[in-house]
Amino acid sequence: SWRPSIDTFQTEDAFLIQADLPGIDASQVSLHIERLQVTICGTRETNISIVQGKRVISERTTGRFCRTITLPFPVDTEGARTTLAHGVYEIYLPKDKSEPRENGAEGDTHQ
What we know:
By secondary structure, the protein is mainly beta. The chain contains no helices and 8 strands. The chain has strands spanning 6-10, 14-20, 29-33, 37-44, 63-70, 81-85, 88-94, 107-110. The strands form 2 sheets. The protein has a 4-stranded antiparallel beta sheet, with no helix packed on it. A 4-stranded antiparallel beta sheet has the order 3-4-5-8, with no helix packed on it. The mean pLDDT is 86.
């Protein structure tokens, strides 16, 4: 398993998550959004075009990953949007204006 790099941003109206997922197709990524948590999971396969030979250097991690981000405020799960371009998976989560939450704590757990 491996752990992709993630950046999180907060604006007045939304929360934005960017995850580095080079070499992964959108069909290999699953996303689960709850009001206060987002979980991104997926798999990066080994893409080797050499039929015979031995690996000399191996620095690219492969396999399954899951990242869970705890949000500091409730989000509108129906308004979420995602894109995957140039190896960056971006999740846009509008804030749920019906339930403002103050004093929330941001966090990240690795599963």
